[in-house]
Amino acid sequence: MKIFRVLLVALIFSIVTAATAHKFYVSTTKIEYVEQQSSVQIISKIFIDDLEEVLRKRYDETIVLDSKDESEQDFVKRYLLQKLQITINGIPATLEYIGKEYEIDVIKVYFEINDIVELSTIEIENMVLFDLFDEQQNIIHLKTGESRRSLVLNKENPKGVLNFD
């Protein structure tokens, strides 16, 4: 009976530690077409520790992202502008970096695309963190007026197209 208890405790311990050791790799990007302003507004949310790790590997091992130090903003901007590409109505769009803010363990990065009079199709390529995590998923939520659509992009399928005609 004593051996059974020891085995049961060992089994439960291994299950609990295995479950907590696996991390979920995900980012979310909210894209909204604001017709009155002729713009597409974009907010990407990424876990700070994941973004920090990829920036350290790509640019500088001493990078530390926190709300008090603005010197790392150029690295965040450069990386995300390389990894997030948007084509609107068949024309590659230029993303304007607006800024960033921190919420506990997440960084929110803001972009805008101006002079969009009509949105018929949008192609989104989001390869954020694919160079670091094979399991990474980038969830896209798109809102245009009353329409709401979502995409889940991964390393094997980093691009998605939505039509509004």
What does this structure look like?
The chain starts with a helix and ends with a strand. 25% of the residues lie in helices and 42% in strands. The chain is α+β, with helices and mostly antiparallel strands and 165 residues long. The protein contains 3 helices and 10 strands, in the order H-E-E-H-H-E-E-E-E-E-E-E-E. The chain has one domain.
Keywords, separated by commas or semicolons:
single chain, 165 residues, alpha+beta, six-stranded mixed sheet, four-stranded antiparallel sheet, 10 strands, 25% helix
Counting helices, strands and paired strands, the structural category is: alpha+beta
> What summary fits the major beta sheet?
6 strands, mixed
Strand residue percentage? 35-45%
Uncertain ranges: 6-10, 16-22
Overall spatial form? globular
Report the helical percentage: 25-40%
Q: What is the typical, i.e. mean, pLDDT?
A: 86
How many helix segments? 3
Spatial gap, N to C terminus: 69 Å
Number of strands: 10
Give the topology string: H per helix, E per strand: HEEHHEEEEEEEE
Strand-helix topology:
Blueprint: H1 2-21, E1 26-34, E2 39-47, H2 48-58, H3 73-83, E3 84-88, E4 91-92, E5 96-103, E6 106-114, E7 121-126, E8 137-144, E9 147-154, E10 159-163
Parallel strand pairs: 1-8
Antiparallel strand pairs: 1-2, 2-6, 3-4, 3-7, 5-6, 7-10, 8-9
Please give a quick description of this structure.
This protein has 165 residues and is of the alpha+beta class. It is 25% helix and 42% strand. It is built from 3 helices and 10 strands, in the order αββααββββββββ.
